[in-house]
Amino acid sequence: MIRDEALGLFRKIAALHTEPVLLVAADSQVLAANPAAVRLLPGVEDDIPLSALVSESADDVGRCVRQWLRTGHPTPAGLTLHGYDGVRLRCRCFGARAQWLHAPTVHLRAVRIDPGDRFLTLKDRVNGLERERTLRFRATEDRAALNASLATVRARLDHLNALVVALAGAATPEAVGELVARHVPTVLGCARADLYLADSAPVPTNLRIPVPPHATLALTTDTSPPPDHLESVTILIGGALSRF
Question: 138: how many CB neighbours lie within 10 A of its CB?
């Protein structure tokens, strides 16, 4: 808790400034404001956070406050203050730790800047470059994820095509079973695949799928294959068996 005499000292110091001056706590809460700030910023006396007085996000404001708390010399940062009647005021805000207080607080002075100000121009350029860098990074990530998905789809199609070709050449139901054991684990990503007909003995498995008209596909797997993959495989196997 900041002592009343400390706030009184701030008001005496801040009253000498014609620019808005604020006392801000470490959590970005506005503790006090000089008369210039009260005249310029609606709500500044309502015990609100600094982020409610500016256009920048609460995260950006928090970063500024943490930076100012680490220095005893006024350090500039660009903030857009909300004036009366919806007016946006671009300001260069000089903040530093209020070393005359025991609690961690920031002494902040805001100076309005014109659109041609070199500091503002440089800040906007840096922000633009940062946004572009972020967009490019996300685009690179999205492209990598898309390429990985396409590679997975192509591999699946290749495996399904190999299964189709193999099943087309099967001459007996037993041959179909051998081809299933050879190709289906790769297609479905399982440890083992066995096909047994109605008159064959069941094999040890943890997943069994009926394959019309007269067979069951038995899979040994840690996870269930995607339903669409499984459906494609069972349709192919059922089609091969229906020839016999």
Answer: 10
